[in-house]
Amino acid sequence: MSEPEEPSEHGAGPEPSARGRHRRPQDDSEATQIIGVEDVLAGATIATGPPQRHTLPKRDRRSPWNRPRDRAIAAIIAVIAVATGVLVWAGSESRATVSETAEPGPALPAAPAAVPATLSELWQAPSGATPAPVAANASVISASGGEVVGRDPLTGQIRWRYSRDLQLCTVGEAWSGAVALYRKDGVNNETGCGEVVALDADTGHRTAQRTGSAQVGTRLVTDGTYVTASGPTLLNTWRDDLVETAEYGKVPALVNPDKQPRVGCTYGSVTMAASRVGVIERCPGDPGDRLTVYRAVPKESDSPQVNYSQLLPGTTGRIVAMSGDYTAVAMAKERQLVLFGSEGNQVATYPLDVPAEDLAKDPVGGVPVTSTTAANVYWFSGTKLLAMSRDNLTPKWTLSSALGPGVLFDHQLVVPIQGGLAVLNESDGSTIRTIGVDRHGYTGPVRLAALGPVLLEQRGDTLVALK
């Protein structure tokens, strides 16, 4: 008789045989099948290396963009992004701007020692946006419509081009290049010449650009360091990076209304010298015109620093020129040239031999027609040329047959006259000789500029090169 079986430690009952024994794994690692330690087939070689563990392959995560709906959404987003970019580009200033630049041109031949006996036309180009020829370094700049062009002085060949889909208001010379004002509404959508661009004369590269508030009908004046845009009720002054240094007058979107010294005034004429701006004001309540001189660079651009503001004896004042501390004002009714000093004190008065009709209106664009040499300042009244000493603006002589102010060309003063040019002595205005120039029937005012051996004439809307 067999002995009774003892109970297992987990309870009563017989212990399973070795063949049918099943043991619960103690941890997850034991659930892994062990390969190479069991003799499955007779005569098989038993692996002697370490046990190899086999794990089930992980299932790859499904991409969120594999469904057709997801791919359709992605395509729509891409189309919207591209369309938005195209619309922004199409309406941007870059889309509407053409800028064809060039390498600096070759140096010009040296100017001869004296004005040649004859001058022939080299070329001509439309340039209705330049009141006077613009020439700097080795380029002549013409401007018309919405395009500013740099030309070779000897051939007129276009070297560089800058154009916008806007109309030019005016173009002037400054900082060895051109400053162009384009017609564009400014602050509060006020109609004006609000797009200002500075271009390098040699290459056509845009050196600066600003959006401003210059008014329609503006012209540019400069003292060599700063540029001021004239306007009937607002004057804007910029430095060479086109940062606005001063605003004078009716400022749009005015934040501090008490900063401007007078309101409701209109401006007759304006000019500059030695970092100062001079303007003839006509203000409500004043018995006559007012001469005001203020700094081109005040401490705050919207808070003018006035050097002086002097009431004039009449209502027909017209600023003629500024030089150093002196300002010359022509009084039409009195037929006088009145000089003012640095503090607004009247220092001298001279009889003015200029026809009354020349002074009946303010100059076009509010800017007097002048030119300057090392010795003199020349003012063209409309029919006569007045030479004044650059030191103190004292009148020196008058020329009746002039069509515009003179310039130094080949080391001599050249003045446009009917039928050609007059070479004059700067000290007394005496004629050295005259040169015939065929202007093809044009008899209006002529503005001059010189660049090396080339003399430039602005005849209305046409720029002409002579040599």
Care to describe what's here?
- It is a single chain.
- The chain contains 1 helix and 35 strands.
- It has a 5-stranded antiparallel β-sheet with strand order 3-8-7-6-5, with no helix packed on it. Strands 4-35-34-33 form a 4-stranded antiparallel β-sheet, with no helix packed on it. It has a 4-stranded antiparallel β-sheet with strand order 9-10-11-12, with no helix packed on it.
- It has one helix spanning 68-90, and strands spanning 34-35, 52-53, 97-100, 121-126, 134-136, 139-144, 147-151, 158-164, 168-174, 177-182, 195-200, 206-211, 220-222, 227-229, 234-238, 244-249, 266-273, 276-282, 290-295, 306-311, 317-323, 326-331, 336-340, 346-351, 369-372, 376-380, 385-389, 395-399, 407-409, 412-417, 420-424, 431-436, 446-451, 454-459, 462-466.
- Residues 1-49 have low confidence and may be disordered.
- It is mostly beta strands.
